[in-house]
Specification:
The protein has helices spanning 9-18, 78-85, 92-104, 109-112; strands at 35-41, 44-50, 57-63. It has a three-stranded antiparallel β-sheet, with no helix packed on it. The protein folds into two domains: 9-63; 78-116, no CATH class. The N and C termini lie far apart (73 Å). The protein is elongated and about 70 Å long. The chain is α+β, with helices and mostly antiparallel strands. It has four helices and three strands.
């Protein structure tokens, strides 16, 4: 088990990892000094964490694949992908608007889309 060398390539990896995890016992964030590298084999890292707040210890197994292209599986056309890629992200106001809408929505989709349906 070894402490991290701040000049090593593993340092950035561990900093990113601990920024996203918390102690399972007390929910406090780990600090750099709470993390010890136990080992690494290929893409798998084994880390030990020791919470400085509550003294709980744990193990983390992390699989990191560097520079691997993520395969996108979709039923969208290339044009639709471009269209949605260029749209703004969903924001807090969008979520609140949907919440307000759903609060009073009774489930009648025909009535909801009545104006968009072709005449029968």
């Amino acid at each position: 088990m070894r402490k991290m060398d701040k000049n090593s390539p593993e340092y950035q990896f561990v900093r990113q990892l601990i920024a996203n995890i918390k102690c399972v016992a007390c929910s406090q964030k780990y600090s750099e000094s709470d993390v010890f590298i136990m080992g690494q084999r290929d893409d798998v890292w084994m880390l030990m964490v020791s919470c400085s707040h509550c003294k709980t210890q744990g193990m983390i197994l992390a699989m990191i694949k560097e520079e691997e292209q993520i395969e996108l599986i979709t039923d969208l056309t290339p044009e639709e992908l471009v269209k949605f890629e260029n749209m703004p992200s969903i924001g807090v106001d969008d979520v609140l608007d949907l919440h307000r809408f759903l609060k009073d929505f009774e489930g009648d989709f025909r009535k909801l889309f009545e104006k968009d349906l072709p005449e029968a």
